[in-house]
Design a protein that fits this description.
mainly alpha, 18 helices, Rab-GAP_TBC_sf, Rab-GAP TBC domain-containing protein, Rab-GAP-TBC_dom, coiled coil
Length: 476
């Protein structure tokens, strides 16, 4: 019988394998796990008769296949490590290390594990879960690769599941700020332990896929009810959030929990809760668009004059929807994009943390100003977005926006943004009041029409009865 221990001893005597003892210790430690796997000399185990087509047998087979794939990935990583093929694992960006610890140890902050368990148990509205699952599948191709694969798992499904858990956990954290959650919408699934990434485990990328559950209807109704009655800005998920969260995971070398805390810091402390507010919708974003229009007009007056007030507003709005809501991910070239994120997370402007968004946006337009000036006036607005986008993708390494800005000017831009936010809020409240009034009028008209129809039916019935009585008396 073949003895693997004897073979390793022979390798050790001859010196044929420099990593013999490490590999032997690894295989010995994994021998109990390997014993349960099908081997070449062991006949396959057939299911009992009459149970091959049952749902339980199919579920068991899927579970076994999933465990085998996880085991295979673990063995592959460990073998690479034994032979020195895996290389040094990427480290967390040094600029974000203190941020992670500060957010993780903040008072009254729920643990990431608890948030993930609640999200997978149905604590997030089903529509949001569906949108997240759609977005994460198309996120990673837009992420640059300045450091290999940023430490992410080689399996695309693992990366997407990790990103989806981060987004859903933050959605649960945001929903917590709306008020008490309805406990009846969170069933016994909360007590079921789900696979999650432990703290600081960069290699633990073996995950179970997210549940595609149908739970969440009551959570959705509760969120809509609270949002309708609460005008305080609370962050909500939009499509660009998946790209921002992926960049945060990149800065933490693919570590899931650390990436979540960086994403939380970005959404709550840098962008602020009003940027992706629920009601009024994205109030901070609309305020920053007004500040952007003023900054572009003051920096490039000739271009602003050619565009006109309406044209400038249209161009800024179209470009801001692509750049600001995704943090320039997929828009800037790789090295400048990483530099922008380093500046954004560093928070050099504590009075206006979102100011780097405005500075880099204006710098991109300024970089493409010469091409825009050469365009015909009647075609300037239609080609504005395409010209800036083309110039942004061809930026050389080391490019940075040259836009000196004083502290008073930064405070002035913040004031412009806040005033625009207030006007936007008032406009939304007026629109909501008009919509509510229109619904009430429509409901009142429906009730009046129903009452009139009932009265007509009653009158018709009375007339028919009277006619029948007259006919009966005439017959007598």
């Amino acid at each position: 019988m073949y003895n693997i221990s004897q073979q390793f001893e022979e390798f050790a005597r001859t010196g044929a394998c420099p990593s013999t003892f490490r590999l032997k210790l690894f295989l010995d430690s994994h021998q109990p796990q390997m014993g349960g796997l099908p081997t070449r000399g062991r006949p396959p185990v057939s299911p009992p008769a009459g149970t091959a087509g049952t749902a339980g047998s199919a579920s068991t087979q899927r579970s076994r296949r999933q465990r085998f794939r996880q085991w295979r990935r673990r063995v592959k990583r460990r073998l690479k490590g034994c032979f020195g093929l895996s290389g040094r694992a990427p480290e967390i960006h040094p600029a974000v290390v203190p941020i992670i610890e500060r957010k993780r140890t903040a008072p009254n902050s729920r643990s990431y594990r608890a948030l993930v368990a609640e999200a997978e148990a149905g604590g997030v509205p089903a529509a949001v879960v569906h949108q997240i699952q759609l977005d994460v599948a198309r996120t990673f191709p837009a992420i640059p690769e300045p450091s290999g694969n940023w430490g992410w798992s080689e399996e695309a499904a693992d990366r997407e599941s990790c990103l989806a858990r981060v987004l859903m956990a933050f959605e649960c954290r945001a929903l917590d700020s709306l008020g008490p959650r309805p406990q009846k919408s969170l069933p016994m699934l909360l007590k079921i332990r789900r696979s999650w990434c432990g703290p600081g485990d960069g290699d633990a990328c073996v995950r179970t896929p997210l549940m595609r559950h149908s739970v969440g209807g009551e959570a959705r109704l509760w969120a809509e009810e609270v949002s309708a009655s609460n005008s305080d800005p609370v962050p909500t998920y939009v499509q660009g959030c998946s790209m921002m969260a992926a960049m945060c995971l990149g800065f933490t070398a693919g570590r899931e929990e650390e990436g979540f805390w960086i994403f939380t810091y970005l959404m709550e402390d840098v962008l602020g809760p009003e940027f992706f507010s629920r009601r009024p919708a994205m109030m901070g974003y609309h305020g920053d668009k007004a500040a952007l229009a003023q900054l572009v007009a003051s920096t490039m007056p000739e271009l602003a004059e050619r565009l006109g007030t309406a044209g400038l507003a249209e161009c800024v709005s179209a470009l801001a929807a692509r750049c600001l809501l995704s943090g320039f991910v997929g828009f800037l070239s790789g090295e400048p994009l990483v530099a922008f994120w380093e500046e954004l997370l560093a928070n050099h402007w504590p009075d206006y943390p979102r100011l780097p968004l405005l500075l880099w946006f204006t710098g991109l337009v300024q970089h493409a100003e010469r091409q825009l000036q050469q365009a015909p006036s009647d075609e300037l607005v239609p080609i504005f977005f395409r010209t800036v986008q083309s110039a942004s993708r061809e930026l050389p390494r080391g490019w940075r926006p040259v836009l000196p800005l004083s502290q008073p000017r930064a405070l002035e831009l913040r004031q412009v943004s806040q005033e625009a936010q207030e006007k936007y809020r008032q406009l939304q409240e007026e629109l909501n009041f008009k919509e509510m009034h229109a619904k009430q009028v429509s409901a009142s008209l429906d009730r009046s029409a129903a009452q009139l129809a009932d009265a007509l039916k009653l009158a018709s019935s009375a007339s028919a009865s009277a006619s029948a009585a007259s006919a009966a008396s005439a017959a007598r």
